[in-house]
Amino acid sequence: MVTTGSCLCGDIRWECDPGPESDMHHCHCSICRKAHGSAFVTFLWVDVSDFRWLAGGHVLVRYRATPASVYERSFCPRCGAAGPIETAGRVYMPAGCLDGDPGMRPDRHIFTGPQHNPSWFSITDGLEQVDDFHLRSPSLPIVESHTPTDVPAEDIAGSCVCGTVVFHITEAFLKVHHCHCQRCQKGRAAAHATNGIGRARAVKFIEGEHNLSEYKVPHAEFFKQVFCSTCGSLMPEVYAEQDGCCVSLGALDTDPRRPPDDNIFVAYHAPWYEITDGLTCYDEAPPGGYA
Ligand SMILES: [Zn+2]
Ligand SMILES: [Zn+2]
Ligand SMILES: [Zn+2]
């Protein structure tokens, strides 16, 4: 079944036709989490001959997350959404960017050990879990994790994949939402975002603020993406007029100190992702407001 995909702003578009060898899986490695800002990233891969760029393949920014990385990651320079990854004759697409139902379902979770999967996210479905995927596929590098230094005891720390941008959150989050809206799916290129909501003044950029890019969705009241221009990692959004901030929890290097409260906009959830965490689900925005 031919399936199309695109980034949040629409500059990058592609189509693919998954064959019988294709599969889908959820990746919980620390690099996917940081690059997308989400708890995990779901990939669908196809043979390179079953993939076609429709627009923008040449404008994607490509980079290696670590010098040892065997593959390049990519993101849209306009909206920051992660894009397809080409490696070893395959193209890995972030399923959050697919426009419709690919007719396939993820069959396992990889990199699920505590060194990867964060404290604030539990896997609650019955799919197979593979702790350390590289043990089965020696060509993949070990995923390095970043340990922040000089963090005041009361702060929460975060950074981008390439390390250019470092930030602290200096006040507790007021709410944490798993957001399944279609903008979050495309923007994070994932099944859903996990957004920590707080006051605008809580965000303190320590390093690299000059390297941030910003994309505001046309006609949206709030939605924007703030990302590192070098690696595309999603960084805290500050909404000064509303005195609010929205932090993609995947960017954090320390515990957010507040577990997710609920699932919101579940009426729009990805057809290939089943919500099994037992948290309260709201079809639309949270009835009591975001904060
Ligand atoms: Zn884009
Ligand atoms: Zn970066
Ligand atoms: Zn959302």
List the helices and strands and how they pair.
Elements (H helix, E strand, L loop, with lengths): L2 E4 L6 E4 L6 E5 L2 H7 L4 E7 L3 E5 L5 E3 L9 E3 L9 E3 L2 E5 L13 E3 L17 E3 L25 E4 L6 E4 L5 E5 L2 H7 L4 E6 L4 E5 L4 E5 L7 E5 L5 E2 L1 E3 L4 E5 L13 E3 L15 E2 L10
One zinc ion (ZN) binds next to loops.
How does the major sheet shape up? 6 strands, mixed
Whole-number average pLDDT?
91
- Radius of gyration over C-alpha positions, nearest whole angstrom: 18 Å
Strand content: 25-35%
Shape: globular
Catalogue the unreliable spans.
none
User: How many distinct folded domains?
Assistant: 2
Strands of the widest sheet, in order across it, are: 8-9-4-3-10-11
Main structural class: mainly beta
Helix count, DSSP H or I runs of 4 or more residues: 2
CATH class of the largest domain, named: Mainly Beta
Which architecture name of the largest domain does CATH use? Beta Complex
Termini separation: 41 Å
SSE order: EEEHEEEEEEEEEEEHEEEEEEEEE
Helix proportion range: under 10%
CATH fold description of the largest domain: Metal Binding Protein, Guanine Nucleotide Exchange Factor, Chain A
- Any ligands, ions or cofactors bound here, and which? zinc ion
Total strands: the figure is 23
